[in-house]
Amino acid sequence: MLLCLTVDHRNADLALLERIERRTDTVTAALSDPELARGAVVLATCNRFEAYLDAPGLAPEQALDGLARAADLAPAELAASCSVHRGDAVVEHLFAVSSGLESVSVGEGEITGQVRRAIDAARASGRSSTELERLFQQAMVVSKRIKHRTGLQTQGRSLVQLALTMVDSRVGDWQAARVLLIGTGAYAGASLAALRARGARSIGVYSPSGRARAFADSHGIRPVEHDALDAELCDTDLVVACSTVHEPLLTRERFDETVTEGSPPFCSRFGRIAPPARNRTRPRLLIDMGLPRNISTDVAGVAGVELLDLETIALHAPIPELGAELEARDIVRTAAAEFAALRAERGAVPALRELRSFVNGILEEEIARIRDREAVDSNSAGVAAETEAALRHLAGRLLHRPTVRLRELAREGRAAEGVAAVAALLGEEPARGGPGS
Fold it and tell me: Is beta strand 2-8 parallel, antiparallel or unpaired with respect to 83-86?
């Protein structure tokens, strides 16, 4: 059975999401236990944590308990903020997620790449399964279909686009603004593109893991080394933080000791003198796209600093164009129904295999008999070939209707009836198999 545990911006606060995502590796290892599930894919983004499990016989309560223990949460606390999807509902949910329909900013484009990287990571570590591979590959197909048919993902929607729109009036002249990007991952690339689309030119990048120079060289921006971070903060108008750190990188202490409006042009944290700060007529703007947080919440209490985090962005997410979203959700429902039907059809495979094996066995015996006769009587060569072709055609015709009917039964959730009927006719034990086994 397919199972999905979802903790996202709709049912959990940012603090709970942070607590889970700080223990992502531990949670992933726990849910990937072969005794718990034969396949597991974990999707962790800035506003959701999801575990997709291929786990026949696993009760949702067991999965929730395993997640709670691994995340060091009380089971009751997790259960109150976790949605559980099972069976065919998992399919529709993932299709909607991968298409951006469940995002804070409906139609965001980044989520498709995040879903793809989640299944890639599971595959690379041996945590995936055949059923999960089918599911995630089809999710990519549905996402692409929605993008091309509705244009929902071509409107430039993303959380960072939304955040930049929210601070647009505060920045004013983007070309003159000095911007610091923190992080060098996939979301940093999307953030950089969004900044440039706004007209930002003076952009620096800082990496807690030391990858700033490589990222800067490949993107044509300036690198900020570890010992230059505080000096850079002295003269920065806008910080966009999207690094994968486990604890806040920018604390109140840093901003208390760097230049704010009306302060002298010094950075005292390490006794270094920073370049003269410009006369600020606007506050310093901080956008925290990280989960866990990159910036401590108490930084918002520093004079001359404004902090915009994921919770604030989510509260101001715009209502999407109704028509495009409705069309996209219709595509998701249709695709999910067809995927579920194909999964159900696989439940009839054992019966089909037995039936075809029985008929084809008799067919090959008759063809062998004809060929033996042909070897004795060379004059019957043409007749033998025609007879073989006729027998193969007849076998196909005989198998067609039972094959169609077995698949119909499977789509109706009655695959077991078909399997039992074939077993009864052939005098064999019912074969086991199918997606739910």
Answer: antiparallel
What is the 8-class DSSP label of residue 274?
P
Q: Give, as one character, the DSSP assignment of residue 41.
A: E
187 annotated to a ligand binding site: yes
Residue 203: φ, ψ to 5°: -125, 125
108 is in an annotated binding site: yes
137 annotated as a binding-site residue: no
pLDDT at 189 over 80: yes
Distance CA 155, CA 78 (A): 35
CATH superfamily of 2-156: Glutamyl-tRNA reductase, N-terminal domain (3.30.460.30)
- In degrees rounded to 5, what are phi and psi of residue 272? -100, 150
- In this model, does residue 277 exceed pLDDT 70? no
**Residue from 214, 212, 209, 240 nearest 225 by CA:** 212
Looking at residue 264, what is its pLDDT? 37
Q: CA angle, corner 294, sides to 285 and 236, nearest 5?
A: 30
Q: Indicate which residue of 4, 46, 234, 267 is catalytic.
A: 46
Q: Does the annotation place 98 within a ligand binding site?
A: no
pLDDT tens across 105-132, in order?
Answer: 676 778 888 999 999 999 999 999 999 9
DSSP assignment string, 138-179: HHHHHHHHHHHHH-TTSS---HHHHHHHHHHHHH--TTT-EE
- Closest residue by Cα to residue 89 from 323, 337, 292: 337
Is the pLDDT score of 90 beyond 70?
yes
Asked if residue 48 belongs to a known ligand binding site, the reply is: yes
The pLDDT of residue 2 = 92
Q: How far is CA 329 from CA 101, 139, 306, 336, in A?
A: 8, 13, 37, 10
Q: Which residues pair with 203 in a beta bridge?
A: 179
- d(Cα 136, Cα 336) in Å, to the nearest integer? 12
Consult the annotation and say whether 397 binds a ligand: no
Residue 46 falls in the annotated catalytic set: yes
Question: Which of 33-37, 153-157, 400-404 reaches the highest mean pLDDT?
Answer: 33-37
Mean pLDDT of the chain: 81
Calculate the alpha carbon distances from 389 to 94, 363, 373, 394 in Å: 47, 11, 16, 9
Domain ranges of the chain: 2-156, 159-315, 346-426
The fold adopted by the segment(s) 159-315 is Rossmann fold (3.40.50)
Over the stretch 285-313, which tens digit does the pLDDT of each residue have? 999 988 788 999 999 888 888 899 888 87
CA torsion sign, 79 to 85 to 86 to 90?
negative
